[in-house]
Amino acid sequence: MDDIEPPFEETYPTLFHNSTARANDKTLFAGDEECELPLIDLARLNFWSFNQWIEEMAEAASQWGFFQVMNHGIPQKVFESMRKEQMKIFHQPFRKKSEQNFMNLSADSYRWGNPKATCLRQFLWSEAFHIPVADISKLEDESNNPRSSIGLFATKAANLAERLAENLAHNLRIKSSYFRDNCLPSSSYLRMNRYPPCPPSFEVLGLIPHTDSDFLSILYQDHVGGLQLKKDGRWLSVKPNPDVLIVNVGDLFQALSNGVYKSVEHRVVSHPKVERYSVAYFYCPSYEAVIESTENIIKPAIYRKFSFREYKQQIQEDVRATGNKVGLSRFLL
After folding, report:
1. How distant, in Å, are the alpha carbons of 94, 104, 168, 248 from that of 172?
2. Which phi and psi (to 5°) does residue 220 adopt?
3. Tens digit of each residue's pLDDT (9 = 90 or more) over 95-141
């Protein structure tokens, strides 16, 4: 039987068997303290409680950069079906997943590990399918059946992201039409993640610390856990709850809000014995969209105006030069 697991050790023997490549950092997996993110109940959004609802969400976006939403309108059976579809996809043999046009997707959709890693601290013990929303309709199985629950999740997440972004913008007096004008369905993308069991002795993360290069991310994760965020200099483990969706602020919203909303560093620690699944929807603008900080009398703009294309190009240049994303600090005034 063909192995489903990516050949991490076989492909990168120097990283895994060379002691100098190891992190040797006891704080790498620090994050034993578990936290519950602020909870936003979308069922409370009505005329009488609108302002309070906005204030609670804005506070979470500014203090945590993360919050979770309930009563989001996506039935639990969609998540259950989506996880089964993910398992069926990821449990295909590795040689098949890595083929060109697997499931009718583009060649670079399937990603695993990190070919640019020079040490285990930069390595990803995970595999993923990175799918532009426009390509989801192409996602087919061996029977040419569309992955209906994955497509439904993408549609629902897109509507939710736009709704939340517009409400967060309301608190900043940004035109609500900004997101409808700049974030077309074709500009966002979906990422399906699988984190295989990882031996603790490898000292490697499922997903290295990073911030998201979008406006908002909508995440569904299973019951296994492993997501951690950095708050007040400490790594906190997010308590898993498959009944809610996790929302986090991306770099673009931090810039647009002039630093009011925070794009917070986060990562994933793989479980030593069981696999973990998640699906993330990244709410992005078109490449031509311009991000300009919302300044006021009290606080002048702290970021210069830039396009999404310019931001993505800067990230690519920094990763090539340093191995790491630098992010918004490149655009400070």
Report:
1. 47, 42, 7, 17
2. -110, 130
3. 999 988 888 888 789 999 988 888 888 889 999 999 998 888 777 65
Alpha-carbon gap, residue 238 to 33, rounded angstroms: 9
Burial of 198 (0-12, 13-18, 19+ CB in 10 A): buried
Beta bridge partners, 306, equal: 291
Number of residues in the chain: 333
Considering Cα of 92, then 94, then 96, then 101, what sign does the dihedral take?
Answer: positive
Distance of CA 240 to the CA centre of its chain: 15
What is the pTM (predicted TM-score) of this model?
A: 0.93
Q: For residue 15, list its beta bridge partners.
A: none
Cα separation, 253 vs 260, whole angstroms:
9
Q: Give the Cα separation of 148 and 151 in Å (integer).
A: 5
281 close to 188: Cβ distance less than 8 angstroms: yes
Contact present, 267 and 30 (Cβ < 8 Å): no
Give the active site residues: 276
Q: Please say whether the beta carbons of 254 and 301 come within 8 A.
A: no
